[in-house]
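Hi L.,

You mentioned the student needs an example of a multi-chain input paired with its predicted structure. This one should do, with 975 residues in total across all chains.
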Amino acid sequence: MSSKIVVKVILVSIALGAAAFALAVRANASHMEAEITTEGPAALQVRLRSADQGLPIANIAVTLSADESFGGVTGRVELGQTSTDQNGVATVRVHPLSAGDHEVRIEYVAPGETEPEVATAFVTMPGITSQLYSSSAGVQIPGVNVSLLIALVATVWAVLLSVALRVIVIARAGTDAGAPTSQAGATGGR
Amino acid sequence: MVDDQRDVQAPLPRLDGPQMGRRGFLRVLALGALGFAPLPILPSLIRAALGGSVVRSMGDAARAPSGRIRQWTMIIDLRYCDGCQSVGKPPQCTAACIQGHFAPEPMEWIEVFEGDLPGGGTQFIPTPCQQCQNPPCVNVCPVAATFSTPEGTVLIDQDRCIGCRICMAACPYDRRFFNWGKAPVPPEAQLARYSAEHQVPAKRGTVMKCDFCPDMIRSGTLPYCVQGCPKHAIYYGDLEEDVATNGEEIVAPSRFLSGNQANRLKENLGTKPRVYYIAGHGEAVGRDAFAKGRMPTEWPWAELVKGAKTWKR
Amino acid sequence: MEALGDQRSRRQAAGPLAAAEPRAGWLARLEQTAFAPITGTSRWYYLWVAFLLLVIAWGVYAYSHQLRDGLIVTGMRDRISWGLYITTFVFFIGISHAGTLISAILRVSQARWRTPITRMAEFITVVALFSGAIFVIIDLGRPDRVLNIIRYGRWQSPIIWDVLAITTYLTASIAYLFLPMIPDLALFRDRLAGRVAPWRIWLYDLLSVRWRGTGAQWRSMGTAITIAMILIIPIAVSVHTVVSWIFAMTLREPWNSTIFGAFFVAGAIFSGIATLIIVMAILRKVYHLEEYVTEKHFVYLGYMLAAFALIMIYGNVSEYVTTGYKLEEGAEFHFRQLFLEQFAGFYWFYFIGGLVVPGLLMLFPRTRNIWGVVAAALLVDVAMWIERYFIVVTGFRVPLMPYEPSTYAPTWVEFSIVTAGFALFALLITLFVKVFPIIAVWEVAEDQESIEVAPAGRPLAPGATLEPAEGG
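Structure written out for the whole complex:
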């Protein structure tokens, strides 16, 4: 008699365990299944199927949210929302989440119901390492930059220096000339 | 006049061209160009040779867990800002900033302006430094004393600033302040080393402004103004990771801004500020648009310092 | 008109060589006039220099206050953060365009009447640039870090463009002042030995770089002057353009205008001509240059003054009619403060007293003389300083955010330093006149020579001598 009870208990616990396992692997509501996959780093795809027949459920609004933490505060942030198409697939464009596992909350109102239902799923995001924002402003026009200014200033100074060198030339011409010719330069000879 | 006629008929002066030799002249010119590195560009050449860079980093750029560099932003929800009328005190964001940074009097790094609304009411607009992405102040600074960081904020190095104040002329938001006199030395200055991220002690003859509290946020603490607001109207966040918080709740800036039709100040000027505003006049905390006036700002810490030098805006 | 006896006695005083030369009378008189400031100094001169030094000393004392306590001793504050110093800086840089216009533009266009006044114009340029540059440094909050401009200078900054342009212009102007002065310095070196202190002869010897008046030397100098005069015109235009861009590169409503560059250059030449007229009038009186700097010069400069007044009126109309027609945000406030309220007195004095009245003074023959021209020039200079003042202050005063507009009240420190700056300007010219030839002797003589050739109808053969001229 005790062995019968033990076997019953074991069977029930296996059934319960299997049910629990099924619940854990698949996000199940009372009569719908939701599956979530990533489509690149910036989109999440949600597939809604009816639990009993596995048929896709179309035209249901789906809202995704996740827990985020920043500045010592943790809270739920809405990631995006859209509706499922003919195949029961909703592709939600999200801001790229950081790499790794995220617990995503899927909220929807099943057809025929009035209360929203919530399911959670884990999704593994591929990492994004490239910066989305870079702080730079301006329009790059080839050639129109600082080097143009540097070249201009350098040219002007080179010419000025050549003018200054003329003074040395004058001085040298003076030693070559020897004795002074006239006084006031007005009628200086040519 | 007779003189004019003579002027026209008279022969030309002696300047009849470089007969000394065009070649000689060209030789001199070339020598002049080659022999002397034109003086104005010499410092640039030296700097380039020594491999110096313009931006002096305080430390590594703040990074998100994904490794991407944070892009700090602030979102101010004006539906929740009533100028602290309901609290009965001077605006607390300003007060927190003044106390936390020991901002010299009369500087209000975040200043609550009261703007007019169509219809006759007013709204309160807390205005920190807008941390522009096309910053007029950085563009005009002659010595790169004010500079943009990789996180998108704008800082000032008071060790380099020469006090020419062209940045103050250039800022279209009136967010830069000058140390006209010697500001009182705050207590933390005795222990802290000056850095552009921690502007203490203030140096006379240089410019200061709101810096988005980079040293605090790097360690996960929210800026003073965000913490100080009793209505949690100010959000601080990262555009890269799309997350922001006001100390109570977390939002995704992309949705928060688009969903509430956020705008920026003086958008038409093209400065691309990082501070966003959601329109309102404090209605979410029960303010009537026609309840005008706010308490004037105070600098309690400065009054404790003996012989504190202050001046008017 | 001089009596013949005077002429003869001057010829004899100049020495036996002079008597043997033709045209000795006129030339000798010219040289005497050039020597006069160098060979003798009156008591009034010393008193004048002492007065200027006193004013400058008071300015230095005021600046010591500023160095000790910081810029808080001025009236500038966060909302209006530039004032008298930047006003005076822009004003002096503007005046420096006197030299460029007279010396370079008139030389390029070979206008002969410029020769007696080129030297004064070039003096003014160098001195004004120097005085202006000082004011930027005085305005700095940290003048001890002024070398940061060289160590860390950013090419993209309007202030660096300013520094580059002003240093380039100062260098070019010094070269342009010095080169045509070489023959005159040689004249001083040759003729003043024994009549003046030895250090002067040493200085003239050094600076005249062994000038002998040979053909080769003339040609070298001619080339150098030609290069410099062509180069200095774009340099000068760029200087005041970049000075205006300190304002025009900001987003403040009254300054956010594309015509600032051209407008400021026109204003600079305008105030430069006016300053030249004033300095000319003073030096002519004190050093008896009446024979060389005649009413004709004043009237010609007066015509140029009137022409530039018209350009300035056009600039004002361009700027204000286009802005005022639309009245964007900030423009209405600016128009009220400038034309009707706080700054109306300044603006209308500038427009009517500084632009319209000088034009009218030149229009009527009654006032088209030395007195009329000098009066016009005085009005212009005062009006242009006032214009720079209200451009700076009203630009800052337009509120950027919802706050009450502030006021700017300059303090005694600022007034003292600005006055000392003007005194420095005057002092430097006064000292220049004592050391360097006030008038370009060789150019004036050359000009006179060419004038005398024409009536005879025959060209001047190289090396030929001339008949003595009758009168001056």
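You could point out the following to them. Chain C has 19 helices and no strands. Chain C touches chain A through 47 residues (CB under 8 Å).

Best wishes,
N.
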